[in-house]
Amino acid sequence: MSASKIKVGIVQHSFSDDVETNRSRNLTAIESLAAEGARLIVLSELHDTLYFCQTEDVDNFDYAEEIPSDFTEFYSAAAASNNVVLVGSMFERRAPGLYHNTAVVFDIDGSLAGKYRKMHIPDDPGFYEKFYFTPGDMGFMPVETSLGKLGVLVCWDQWYPEAARLMALAGARMLIYPTAIGWNPDDSQEEKDRQREAWITIQRSHAVANGLPVISVNRNGFEEDPSGQTSGIDFWGSSFVAGPQGELLFMAPDNGPCEAMVEVDMTRSEDVRRWWPFFRDRRIDHYGDLLQRWRDKTT
């Protein structure tokens, strides 16, 4: 039977160009949170390296690893030795010239419970992900674990209500977003505030619309643009956990590392969906146009 209350550990870190150092810090955090009673631990997006997508450099493909690999062996052992469900993020090498941004989920025995390949791939200054990642081809299906079905998505997916809804419709008990998002240091403070608040608001809205808890774990800290063409990225942290009415259960700082454990009452989703029966009242007979790129009947 799935747990009625889950203690969730979040790991908000900055990273270096040393993979082994990053892994060591992640493992220390996993061990510490597990010792406090965490049953589910979530890491941020691409947590083994710097955010290499600031530039288009073919040498960065060397960061990619296959499944299985040293990456999966390391984090599988971390999950098993600490008796936790662990959500990680990797640069997956599927075949020569075919790579994905992939979330991996390990169960308490270290087995690979499942994976999710990022579906929405951005391509913006400083975030040149289309150069590296092929869009996912696994759809929006939760990963079955000993804690129930986890709706794992990745970063840019968090802006799309369709992704959250499809995970919920497939039985996800919660939505989880490993993330790497930050500010352009040249932006005004007002613009920075707008961006961060929009990021928080859209994900809280997914919690409300679907009656599910949301866990979003971001990296933090400044990372230089290796090309020198931009001012780099200041990752804004602010990892958070929201309940099924969008209520904030925890919010990490925007300017430093954070390791925290948050207890989530999974039984509240049932109550909230009874009070706000959005699924009952959906007009699925009139949503067909959502499959169009744009509702322009003249072309």
Distance N to C terminus:
52 Å
Count of helical regions: 5
Rg (C-alpha, Å): 19 Å
Listing every helix as H and every strand as E from the N terminus to the C terminus, the arrangement reads EHEHEEEEEEEHEEHEEEEEEH
- The portion of residues assigned to helices is 10-25%
Strand proportion: 25-35%
Strand order of the largest sheet: 5-4-3-2-1-17
Please state the structural category. Answer: alpha+beta
Low-confidence stretches: none
Largest sheet: 6 strands, mixed
- Mean pLDDT over the full residue set: 97
Number of strands: 17
Q: Which overall shape is indicated by the principal axes computed on the Cα atoms? A: globular
Describe the model:
With 299 residues, the protein is α+β, with helices and mostly antiparallel strands. It has helices at 19-35, 70-82, 161-169, 189-210, 268-275; strands spanning 5-12, 40-42, 85-95, 98-106, 112-117, 123-124, 127-128, 143-145, 148-152, 174-179, 182-183, 214-218, 220-223, 233-236, 240-242, 248-251, 258-265. The longest helix is centred in the last third of the chain and has 22 residues, at 189-210. The radius of gyration is 19 Å and the shape is globular. The mean pLDDT is 97.
